């Protein structure tokens, strides 16, 4: 049986940090503040205090950042939020943009 030797490579692989995306929730006149806080807790894993602070940004400033994630995770959270909002008959708008 032949003996195999492992040769260590001197080449170094440069790994780039993945691009990050902000998930943004927009204010509307129909979605309740309680629902927004619930979504921020359940989908974005925010504490009650964090969820209320983000909800107030959304209410007072017209939008709020729910979190910053890699593309795939941001996209999944946008879809989960919209699906839950539609199931509860809210027109909640959620988008993502590159950080």
From TrEMBL:
Keywords: Hydrolase, Protease. Signal peptide: none annotated. GO terms for biological process: protein catabolic process; proteolysis. Transmembrane segments: none annotated. InterPro entries: ClpS, ClpS_core, Ribosomal_bL12_C/ClpS-like. Residues 16-95 form the Adaptor protein ClpS core domain. One of its GO terms (molecular function) is peptidase activity. Belongs to the ClpS family. Involved in the modulation of the specificity of the ClpAP-mediated ATP-dependent protein degradation. Binds to the N-terminal domain of the chaperone ClpA. This is ATP-dependent Clp protease adapter protein ClpS. It comes from Hydrogenimonas thermophila.
């Amino acid at each position: 049986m032949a003996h195999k030797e492992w040769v260590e490579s001197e080449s170094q692989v440069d790994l780039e940090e993945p691009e990050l995306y902000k998930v943004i929730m927009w204010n509307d006149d129909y979605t309740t503040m309680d629902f927004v806080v619930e979504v921020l807790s359940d989908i974005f894993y925010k504490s009650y205090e964090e969820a209320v602070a983000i909800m107030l940004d959304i209410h007072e400033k017209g939008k709020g950042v729910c979190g910053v994630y890699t593309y795939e995770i941001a996209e999944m959270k946008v879809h989960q939020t919209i699906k839950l909002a539609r199931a509860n008959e809210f027109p909640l708008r959620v988008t993502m943009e590159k950080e």
